[in-house]
Every structure is written in structure tokens, then in C-alpha cells.
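Complex record, two chains
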Amino acid sequence: MEHKDNPKLYEIRHSLAHVLAQAVQKKYPDVKLGFGPPVETGFYYDFDFGDVQINEKDLKDFTKQMKKIINQKQEFVRSEYTADNVEEAIADILPNETYKHENIRNLKERGVKDFTFYQNGPFIDLCEGLHVAHTGELPIKGFKLDSIAGAYWLGSEKNKQLTRIYGLAFETNEELRSYLERRQMAEKFDHKKLGKELGIFHVEPDLVGKGLILWLPNGTVIRDEIEKYAKEIEFRYGYKRVHTPHLTKAELYHTSQHLPAYEESMYPPMVLPDEDSDTKYYLKPMNCPHHHLIYGSQQHSYRDLPMRLAEYGTCYRFERSGELSGLIRVRCMTMNDAHIYLRLDQFEEEFKRTIQMYQELYDTFKLSEYSFRLSVRGKENSEKFKGDAAMWDKAEKLLAKVMDELGLDYFVGEGEGAFYGPKIDIQFKNLMGREETVSTIQVDFLSAQNFGLTFINEEGKEEVPVIIHRAPLSTHERFISFLLEYYGGAFPTWCSPIQVSIIPVAEDCYAYADALAAELTSDFMRVKVDKSSNSFNKKIRNNTVQKIPNMLIIGAKEVEEESVTLRRYGIKEQEYLSRADFIALLKQEIADRVMHREPMGSII
RNA sequence: GCCGAUAUAGCUCAAUUUGGCAGAGCAAUUGACUUGUAAUCAAUAGGUUGUCAGUUCGAUUCUGACUAUCGGCUCCA
């Protein structure tokens, strides 16, 4: 969070971080301080507790102490130093705060000239501010220490891991309570919970493995419908479909430079013993190298470009155990992948077409809350990014230019690029507020070189194509996790596992209901007749809880008049229409992929 | 992988504080009821309390290790 967003709240959160640090110091005087900034929902402070282990019981003690400090109305006093005298000052004021010392050195290296300290009560911290006037201004019922987590110093795994204490903080108790309520609500619509309730997916860690999803019949319907839609739209946009194996020899990934760069994200190889040397096979972590070989298998004229190769390709990545999360991060994923091989002068137009296709897809799914991230090289660990600097400059500028021309707002994500080039990532937030990349478009000047890919230009000479990697619908796994949450499990008719549930009022309506079901089935609609011995009310309830988009009530009247009463999920008004009209209506609705309800979006 | 929390029936949760035969609702099964817009009644079944050790006459409860899940860090679609 930044000061300009909401100065008062920023100061409250920032000051609470200092109060937390003071409370922690009171109980553990030897603790060393890291950073303690305000964030989206409150604040955190990083501590080095040495050998002491902190648990949630400590949070209660810290909270009590924080309240005491607030009641003491300690004044925040600012003192200023320059780059010349700050190190002397801190050696005197905070002799043991080694992380603060390191921070000052880093800031000076970056050219920072002015340094400030803030003191309240016995606590003093290097900090640029700003703060409330005194601790009495802090909302004693507006904050709550939330959780403990490990966090690496300066965000690097190579550094020591500090203990981070997260606090929630708002201006009033009402706002805090409302946030907690929203969080509870979000838990209700968590895709893992809905996935279980609606029979979408299942995981069997002991027998299959963690992060390896078993898709149940209902979930598979959703996957298949999305895939069918993707194939239609890609057909219209001129894509050709390909299929590639899940396994490949190690040599492919030497050519592509995945090895050794990407090796730690890959499953270890299968080794086939051979007389001279062993042959190693890897499960593919990406589809691109295979597609490049397909492009390279034939000679191409400049007239053939852009060439668009698409595959819903299944990939395997050995994500570290702590990184796995429901369907959002898995170890086996099926990607809405395609690679576009084109001439540089075609880039702008093709990029625009691609964005246009993304928007068409998002409109269908009614996804509107996302942001574009231009993901570029990072200054740090530059060894991660392959290829020369000139190439990266060119690619990064090209993406920025096209985004500007399209008038699309974006923010820059340093160090977020792929190893072979920069990309536009499309970021969504899940219900719990966690941001994830869903779609991506990447520019790649490197792979065509690595694979020796060419086309013959107007002058009859070989030229190297540019490659766009794109995945608008992400992976089935991640995309469906977002749909589940955004829709609260209630899918539109076209991709709903069961599209129509027929509820006969009495047994003498069964024949009509069965005939209707048979007719719908012959039109490829997914339909069931609820013949359970439940009461009518219970049937309504069961089918509603299962979030079935269309319920048909069939009683004596409907049988007699060859009609149906349509009750749609989440819509109060029922429709009474003829059987023929209903079938026509629903067929059209499915064909057009109509969505009646607005998705929730992120609620935190 | 690291930090913290959690693990009881298919699901949601009790009991364990002080070690002594593990309990409810929903779901399931069976029977009765055939119902006009969100829970009909009754009966039955369902558990090596995540796994493996240790302490103990006795462990679901105490100790330790492991595994998995959740929230973070790092990594990423």
C-alpha cells in the first residue's frame, strides 16, 4: 500500500507496525528488526528471533502489550540524518540492529541522501514515515494480529529466513469485522470446498501423488466444454491443432535451454540403461519445444506466416511441496497453449488480434476484473534470463509500444519475465485476494535461434521468425479454480455439468419427464430426472444446492399442456413456456454460450 | 524446500482440559409417504481418531518423527 492511496490508513498501519515491534521487543529483548511496512489489509513486521520459536500464543501476548502502548499515547518523534552521518548515528542509536545497518548501506548505494528515524516511547526505528501524532490515535479495536510466516530477508531465498508477523488493520472496528466477514464468505466459495461439494476434482496424495488431480465426471464436463470452446475460437482465428507426446529425450531440453536452467522445476528423468550411454527421458514441463520441432519439420515461406500451432497440452512440473495449492498450483496441468511463428513486421497486428481474442474469451466468461503486467527481466539474478541484452531490450520495448498503442493500462513486473523473453501476464485475484497469473502472451526472439527455425523471405533468403507464446485460458486447473470461485460454483448452462434437472411433482408425471429428458439428451443436453423419494421441497433444495442452472417443474398442468415451468438458478421469476419453445430457447442459449448472472469477482 | 497452524464417519463439527468402551447433524442404505417451489417420518449401517514409533496396565488424548492440508516466503500457468 502507498501513502497517497489513503494517508490516514497508511499512517495507522505503519504506526501499528512500530507498536508491534515495541511489544515484541518487550517480551524478547534480543530480537532483531527487519522491515515493517503497511500492506493491502494491514501491516507486517519481520523479526529475527534467533533460536526462539514463536507461535500463535505469543500473538496474544503481543496484542495485549500493543494495547497498553496505544493507551500510553506515545508521541512519534522524527529525527533527520544525512547519508554522511546516518551510519554514525545508527551505530549509536541502534548498535545491534544489523539488518537496519545493512539496509542503510543498501539505501546509500541506491543514492538515498536523507534518512529519518522515528521514536515513540522507548522504541526507535529507521523509517521514512509517515506516522500518526501519537499512539493514542491508533484504533485499539481496529487491528488484529493475524498470522506468523517465514519470510526471507530482502526476499531472497539465499538470505536468512526471518519470522514475519502479519496484522490486519483498519480505521474502525466495523471495517475490521466486515473484512473478517468477507474473508469467511470467501472461504465458503473457496474452489477446493466447492470442488468437493460439486464433485469437480479429487486428490489422492498417497496413491497418486500430491498436486496430481483426478478429474471427476462433473469437472471433466467443464474441462471438455472449455476445450471445445477454445478449439472453436482458435479455429476462427486461424490456428492449426497439433498433438505431442508427454515424454521427450533430454536432448530436446538442451536445445531449448530448459536444461539446466529449468531443471529444478522438472520431474527427474526416467533413465533407460543402454550399452554405451544411458538415455534420459523427461516429462515435458512445457509444450513449446515440441511445437518448435513441428514448425521446423517443414520449410516455410514468408507467405505462410503467421503460423499458429495450438494444443491443449498436458505438462508436468515438479513444483516444490509448499507451493502447491488446490487447483491453482498443481504438478500436472493441461494448458491452453499455442505458438505463433511470424515475421517481425507482423508482430503488432498479430498481437492485437491475440488481445482481441482474449477479450472475446473474457466477455464470454464475463471476466472483467484483471490487470495487465508487463513482465520483464530483473536486475538481480540476471543469469536466469537467457539471450543477449539487445534482444531483451527490443522485445520489452516492442511489448510496451503495442500495449500503449492499444491503450491498455499495465504495470511493470521486474524479474517476472520468462527465461526466453518478456511477456504480458494477465493477473486475476482469487476470492481470498491472492493474485495469480491466469493468461499470458510472451514474445520470444531466442527459441527460433536455438532451434534453427527459419522461413524463406521475399528475397529467397532464410530469415528467423519471431515466436509468440500465448495461453488465454491458462491451464484447465487454474482457470477452473477461478471460474469456480467467481461463479460460486454456479456455471452457466453451456458448461454446467448438469444443464437441466427435471423435477416431477408426482409419479404420474414420470412418463412425460422421461420423454422430455430423452428428447433433450438426443440434442446433446446433459439432463437428469429427479425420481428420488424426497418431498417436492427437498428436491428443489437438493437441485439448488447442486447449483444446477435450469430446473424444470413438471406437474399435471405441464403434462396436459405439453409445457414446462422453468426455474433458473439464482433467478426468482419462473417462466412458463411450451416444451418446444423451451428446447429451442435452451439450444440457442447453449450455442451462444449465454451467461445470465454476473460473477462475483474477488471479494477481498 | 522454509515459517506458522491444522488432521476425529463420505461432509460439517463435538468429546480429549484430568489417559479408561468415540458422539451429533447432513449425506448414504432400507421402509412408509407421492407431495406445486429451499430440508416428510422412521429404522439401519458407517471409525485401527492422518501414518509410524515411544511413555503407560491402558493412548484418539501425553512425547517424538513422518505425511498431507491451509496461510505466508520463495517459485510459477
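Note: DSSP finds 17 helices and 28 strands in chain A.
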